[in-house]
Write a structure and sequence with these properties.
By secondary structure, the chain is of the alpha+beta class. It has one domain: 2-Layer Sandwich (Ribosomal Protein L30, Chain: A). Helix content is about 30%, strand content about 25%. The protein is globular and about 30 Å long.
Length: about 60
């Protein structure tokens, strides 16, 4: 089974968000506004992306 790659960009600030939302950003490797990272679409990463989807822009690679 091959997992697709995703390009994830943080488009909203993490200031004032819940602690577990901060943890999701850290788990995805996002630290700054408008930072973009490439992640593999594993169930763990997809769950974090779904939880904080209002803060992210996600594109397929």
């Amino acid at each position: 089974m091959t997992n697709k790659k995703l390009k994830v960009t943080m488009i909203k600030s993490k200031i004032g968000r819940l602690k577990n939302h901060h943890a999701c950003l850290k788990g995805l490797g996002l630290r700054k506004m408008h930072q973009t990272v490439n992640v593999v679409g594993t169930p763990e990463n997809l769950g974090m992306i779904k939880k904080i989807s209002y803060m992210l822009k996600v594109e397929d690679i």
